[in-house]
Amino acid sequence: MKTQQQLITTTRRWISAFIIFLIISGVTAFPLEWELSNLHDISHIAPSYISAWISNVYDAIKYTNTKYPFMSYGTDWLAFAHIVIATAFIGPLKDPVRNIWVVQFGMIACAMVLPLAFICGTIRHIPFYWQLVDCSFGVLGFIPLYICYKTILKIEKLNTFK
């Protein structure tokens, strides 16, 4: 059986990784056209339906940024939101038991990615396979948070026996 300190260390490692990946996934929204340009350049190695989708998205972003650069302001706010949400996880990093609600909030937010991707993805004509890619962010985010949640419950249980 792990000690309380080992459980806290494990939780902090998972939360730190979650914070880092949340910030990285957000910051990638800033250079979207450049990223898509690079992806477009190598998309020929992907199946044709994926290559065609990447080309279509790249053309749309490039056109929009040329004619209406203010539209990318929305993705700037998306990036900012990721960073802001990541800062909320400083609470459980400092005191996991007292701030378990932040981990619960994160798990709920990750679960909410799935209906959003399927509902809005369908409305916006996003290919189903890309909706699954978007869903993977919710699933992959949920896993470390669930591990943290279960570990925090163990820490809390050890605290009640003191």
Explain briefly what this protein structure is.
The chain is 82% helix and 0% strand.
- Poorly predicted runs: none
Percent in strands: under 5%
Gap between N and C termini = 16 Å
Number of strands: 0
Structure, explained:
α1 runs antiparallel to α7 (128-160) and α6 packs antiparallel against α7. The mean pLDDT is 96. This protein starts with a helix and ends with a helix. The protein is elongated. The chain has one domain (4-160). By secondary structure, it is mostly helical. The protein is built from seven helices and no strands.
List the defining traits of the structure above.
mainly alpha; 7 helices; 162 residues
Describe how the helices and strands are arranged.
Layout: H1 4-27, H2 32-42, H3 48-67, H4 73-88, H5 90-94, H6 100-123, H7 128-160
Helix pairs in contact: 1-4, 1-7, 2-3, 6-7
